[in-house]
Amino acid sequence: MSRRLIAPALFLALALGACASERSSAPGYGWSYMDNTGDGLKLAYGRPNSDDVVMMLACAPGTSAVTVTATSLSGREIALASGRVVTRLPAQRMASDMADGLLQARTTTDASALSAFRRTGDLTLLVADERHNLDAAPGDRAGVKAFFKACGA
Fold it and tell me: Which of 55, 57, 109, 116 is placed for a possible disulfide with 43 were both Cys, Cβ 3.0 to 4.6 Å?
């Protein structure tokens, strides 16, 4: 099985979304857990049942390795915060039709911010001096916990 957890088609789906800063606090966005056989486990923050995705976490079942993909970012890192805990992940720019960019980083389920996110449902994407709230709504928290449990956390 390939270690690449997000297929090119998923990159295209991520690329179709609008700017993260405009979407992260917009109504109608939330976390969706997906467990598709042969496609790995995914936890996406975006508009349900659409290609409008701000951030995606992906893993293979039973592993602690997580791929983090975020849209509309530039630079060389993806920074996540949960409560007072911040995790800065070195990231690579991925090929995309998006003007603002698509970044991907690799980490594990026990990264400080992801571990806190699993417990609390609170997650913030840090971009320069801006904070973009990606907190899980009460109805999304079961999916967040299911993703981390299935990944082996």
Answer: 57
